[in-house]
C-alpha cells in the first residue's frame, strides 16, 4: 500500500518525517454484505520527489477478504496533509493495483479526532450501498452537514447555509452599513456558505468582517491557482495602485477633455509615484495592464482593446453598440418586444406616469417608415433592453451620493432586413420627487455619424453518489471565488461600489433583480432564449431552436456547448436511473434537491415553477442546467470524467 502526499509549505516538512499517518482498510463480505473487522496498520516514508512524499505500508490480508470498499485515514501529524491518492497493490507479479483518488486535505487528529474515509471510485445509489459501507456513508454526510452552530475553523469540511449578512461593516462606520441580503421579502437572495463569525455590535443581524473567510477546506484554490488569484496579494496591490492613480490625476471629478486624452491611456500611460510592489499588478490582471515598470517614475500602460485597434472610434458607432449587446460582456438581457406600448408596473403615484415616451410614431419615423409597429411586432423585428422598473426606485438614492447620477433606461432596437441589429431609441427617466415632476426624454440616432448547489450537493450526496461525482468537477473553486468576492469585490466600500452606476446600492440592487427575474426553470440557454423571445422551438432546426437574430454569437456558441452537455448528462443519468422509481427511491438525491430549493434558495422555496425530480428525464434537465451555469472552464473536465465513468 502506498500513499502520495503533499506536505504543507516550508517549516512543516519535519512533522511528516517524524510522525506517521495511520490508514485502515474497510471492506465488506461479498457473501453476506456485512461489515468485517478492519485491518489496520501504519505507513512509513518511502521516497520524496519535489513536493510529493510517498508513504508505504504492508497489511496482511486474508484470501477471504473480498473487495475493498473504502480506506479510513488518520493523520497523526501536527499539521494537515494533502492526500493525492492511495494505491493498494496485492502481492504477486500479475496483481492489479487499486488506486483511490483522494485529492483532499486531511486534518490532524490533534485538531479533530474524527478519521477521514475515502471510498473507491465505484459509485452506488443509496439503496445499492453495500452494508459494510452504509455506516460510513451516513456518518460522512452527517460530518459534512455539521450541526449549524459555532464558528467554523479553517481545517473543517462543513457545508451549511447563511444569508449574505457580511457585506457591510457597521462597527467601522455608519456609511459602511449594508442591509442583509436573503431572508426577507424586501431583499430575497440565494444563500452562501455559513461561517459562524460573531455578530457586529451595532447591527445584531450582520456578521463581523475578518481578514479571511471560511470555506470548506477542499474548496480552496490549488497552489497554482492561488498564486494567480491571491486575494491577499490582489488587495495589497490595489491598496497601492488605486491611491497612486488618484495621486497621478489632478482632479478625479474631471472627465476626458478630448478624444486624444483617451488614447493617452494606451499610448503614453499614467505616471504613478514611485512605490514598491506596483509591478506585481500586471501579473494579476495582465489582460488589462500592458506594462508597469519600476523605474524613477512608474508608468501604467493599459492594453489597447482589439476593437479600438481596428477602429479607434468604433465605440461611438451604433453598429458596435448593437454588437456589444449580442456578443459583449452581457448578452443575457436583450428581449423580443411582444407588447406595445411600454407601460411601467410601478406605482404612478410614487414614480410618475407609467406610459413610456417611446411612441409608435417615433419608432416608425426612426425605421424610415419601412413598416408599422404592428408589422414589426408580428415579424419579430423589435427588441428591447429594459432596466426601467428595476432601476427607477434607486434613482433618487444614487443621486444623493457624492458625484453620482443615475437614470432608469429603455433601449429599443430594430432588426433590419439584412439581419443587422440597430438601436433606434433610448429613453432615460428620472422619477417624480417632492419638489420636481417626473422627467424623461427619448434620444434617437444621429444620422450623421452574470453556491447553493454546491453546499446542497456536499450536504446530501455521498462522495460515492454518481450525481455527486458528475457535478463535483464543475464546483471547483466556486466557493473560494464567492468568499473572496464578499471580502473584496462586493462588500461595503469595494471596487464594485466604486465603479458601478448604483454605487453603494449595487449589490442591494442585485437582490431586487434576483427577486424579480431569477427562476431556476429559466436558467441556461434554451429556456432563457425562448423566454426573452430570442429563439423559438423548431424541431427541424439545429439544436431544436430557431434564433430570432441569426447572428447572435452568445447563442450560436452557447447552444453547441449545451447540446454536448445534454448528450453526455443524459447518457450518464440513464445508466444509473433506468426508471422513474429509481429516481424517486434515491433518498439522497431527493434530499439534495429539497436542500437546493428550501435552503439554498429559501426566499423562493414556495414558487410554483420549481421542477420536480421524479424521473430520469427531469433529473437530466436539472443537472444540465446546473452544469451549464457553473464555470465554463470546468465543462471539459466534467465531460471527460463522466465519459470515463460510462466506459468503466
TrEMBL record:
InterPro entries: LipOase, LipOase_C, LipOase_C_sf, LipOase_CS, LipOase_plant, Lipoxygenase_dom_3, PLAT/LH2_dom, PLAT/LH2_dom_sf. Residues 123-648 form the Lipoxygenase domain. Residues 172-210 are annotated as: Disordered. Residues 1-120 form the PLAT domain. One of its GO terms (biological process) is response to wounding. Pfam families: Lipoxygenase, PLAT. Keywords: Dioxygenase, Fatty acid biosynthesis, Fatty acid metabolism, Lipid biosynthesis, Lipid metabolism, Metal-binding, Oxidoreductase, Oxylipin biosynthesis. Residues 191-200 have a biased composition (Basic residues). It comes from the Eukaryota. Transmembrane segments: none annotated. Belongs to the lipoxygenase family. This is Linoleate 13S-lipoxygenase 2-1, chloroplastic. It comes from Ananas comosus (Pineapple).
Amino acid at each position: 500500500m502506498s500513499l502520495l502526499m503533499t506536505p504543507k509549505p516550508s517549516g512543516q516538512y519535519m512533522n511528516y518525517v517524524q510522525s506517521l499517518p495511520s490508514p485502515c482498510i474497510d471492506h465488506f463480505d461479498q457473501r453476506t454484505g456485512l461489515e468485517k473487522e478492519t485491518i489496520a496498520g501504519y505507513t512509513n516514508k518511502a521516497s520524496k520527489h519535489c513536493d510529493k512524499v510517498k508513504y508505504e505500508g504492508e497489511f496482511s490480508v486474508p484470501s477471504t477478504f473480498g473487495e475493498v470498499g473504502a480506506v479510513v485515514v488518520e493523520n497523526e501529524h501536527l499539521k494537515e496533509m494533502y492526500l493525492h491518492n492511495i494505491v493498494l497493490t496485492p502481492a504477486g507479479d500479475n496483481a492489479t493495483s487499486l488506486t483511490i483518488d483522494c485529492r483532499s486535505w486531511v486534518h490532524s487528529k490533534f485538531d479533530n479526532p474524527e478519521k477521514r474515509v475515502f471510498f473507491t471510485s465505484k459509485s452506488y445509489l443509496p439503496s445499492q450501498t453495500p452494508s459494510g459501507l452504509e455506516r460510513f456513508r451516513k456518518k460522512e454526510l452527517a460530518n459534512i452537514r455539521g450541526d449549524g452552530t459555532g464558528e467554523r475553523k479553517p481545517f473543517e469540511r462543513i457545508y451549511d447555509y447563511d444569508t449574505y449578512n457580511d457585506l457591510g461593516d457597521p462597527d467601522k462606520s455608519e456609511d459602511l452599513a449594508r442591509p442583509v441580503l436573503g431572508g426577507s421579502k424586501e431583499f430575497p437572495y440565494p444563500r452562501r456558505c455559513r461561517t459562524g463569525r460573531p455578530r457586529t455590535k451595532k447591527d445584531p443581524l450582520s456578521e463581523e468582517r475578518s481578514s479571511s473567510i471560511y470555506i470548506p477546506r477542499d474548496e480552496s484554490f490549488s497552489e497554482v491557482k492561488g498564486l494567480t488569484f491571491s486575494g491577499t496579494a490582489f488587495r495589497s496591490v490595489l491598496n497601492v495602485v488605486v491611491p497612486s492613480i488618484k495621486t497621478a490625476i489632478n482632479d478625479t471629478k474631471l472627465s476626458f477633455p478630448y478624444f486624444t486624452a483617451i488614447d493617452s491611456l494606451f499610448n503614453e500611460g499614467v505616471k504613478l509615484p514611485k512605490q514598491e510592489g506596483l509591478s506585481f499588478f500586471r501579473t494579476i490582471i495582465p489582460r488589462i495592464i500592458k506594462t508597469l515598470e519600476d523605474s524613477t517614475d512608474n508608468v501604467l500602460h493599459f492594453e489597447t482593446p482589439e476593437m479600438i485597434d481596428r477602429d479607434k472610434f468604433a465605440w461611438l458607432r451604433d453598429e458596435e453598440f448593437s454588437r456589444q449587446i449580442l456578443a459583449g460582456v452581457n448578452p443575457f438581457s436583450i428581449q423580443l418586444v411582444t407588447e406595445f406600448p411600454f407601460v411601467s408596473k410601478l406605482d404612478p403615484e410614487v414614480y410618475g406616469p407609467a406610459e413610456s415616451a417611446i411612441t409608435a410614431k417615433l419608432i416608425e419615423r426612426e425605421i424610415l417608415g419601412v413598416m408599422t409597429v404592428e408589422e414589426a411586432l408580428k415579424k419579430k423585428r423589435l427588441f428591447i433592453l429594459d432596466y426601467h422598473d428595476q432601476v427607477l426606485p434607486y434613482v433618487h438614492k444614487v443621486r444623493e451620493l457624492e458625484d453620482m447620477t443615475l437614470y432608469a433606461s429603455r433601449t429599443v432596437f430594430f432588426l433590419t432586413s439584412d439581419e443587422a441589429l440597430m438601436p433606434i431609441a433610448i429613453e432615460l427617466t428620472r422619477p417624480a420627487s417632492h419638489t420636481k415632476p417626473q422627467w424623461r426624454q427619448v434620444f434617437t440616432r444621429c444620422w450623421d455619424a452574470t453556491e447553493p448547489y454546491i453546499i446542497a450537493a456536499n450536504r446530501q450526496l455521498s462522495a460515492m453518489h454518481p450525481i455527486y461525482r458528475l457535478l463535483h468537477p464543475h464546483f471547483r473553486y466556486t466557493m473560494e471565488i464567492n468568499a473572496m468576492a464578499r471580502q473584496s469585490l462586493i462588500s461595503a466600500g469595494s471596487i464594485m461600489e466604486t465603479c458601478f452606476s448604483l454605487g453603494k446600492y449595487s449589490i442591494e440592487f442585485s437582490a431586487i433583480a434576483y427577486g424579480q427575474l431569477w427562476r431556476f426553470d429559466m436558467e441556461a440557454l434554451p429556456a432563457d432564449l425562448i423566454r426573452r423571445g430570442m429563439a423559438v422551438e423548431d424541431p427541424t432546426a439545429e439544436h431544436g431552436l430557431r434564433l430570432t437574430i441569426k447572428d447572435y454569437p452568445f447563442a450560436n456558441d452557447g447552444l453547441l456547448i449545451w447540446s454536448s452537455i445534454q448528450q453526455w448528462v443524459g447518457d450518464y443519468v440513464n445508466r444509473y436511473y433506468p426508471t422513474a422509481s429509481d429516481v424517486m427511491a434515491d433518498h439522497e438525491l431527493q434530499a439534495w434537491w429539497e436542500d437546493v430549493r428550501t435552503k439554498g434558495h429559501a426566499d423562493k422555496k414556495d414558487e410554483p415553477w420549481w421542477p420536480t425530480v421524479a424521473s430520469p428525464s427531469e433529473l437530466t434537465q436539472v443537472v444540465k442546467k446546473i452544469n451549464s451555469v457553473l464555470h465554463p472552464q470546468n465543462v471539459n473536465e466534467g465531460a471527460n470524467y463522466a465519459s470515463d465513468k460510462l466506459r468503466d
